[in-house]
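call fold(seq) -> tokens
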Amino acid sequence: MSEEQKNLPEGVRRVAATLREAGHAHPPVMLDDAARTAQQAADALGVGVGQIAKSIIFRRRSDDAAVLVITSGDRRVDEKKVEALVGRIGRADAEFVKLKTGFSIGGVSPVAHADLPVTLIDRELYRFDEIWAAAGHPHGVFRLTPADLEKLTGAPVADVVQAPPAA
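ret:
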């Protein structure tokens, strides 16, 4: 581990190690300002809000499993569509998110979770050649493609969002 990596927050180090082990070309970068929302991340990176891969955690009611929905930053998750794929879900509070993922809300990465979640990838992410995801801390992000996200998570791509508003 390099000296620079030792200074990273623990969650970012976990994500960096996972990405390195997978042979991913883009390590996490730390932003000057927190990127707790997709809009904040997009502004900091100079990209469209849709290029931010949001990690939304739900709690599956049948077995208390974490359900991770990775969606485009300009879309809203349609909980009914998610339930049709994984069973009944409910909201996850900050304590549940931290316990199940090892990350705090605002920095949940799509990889390097404490417990492997049930994961779904929003097909809307494929509108973009390049996307950015949280890297385990509100200031940490990493660059990838939608195909990289599929490879890194092993998750299926699905229709999990509400229809965008008519222009």
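The first helix runs from residue 3 to 6.
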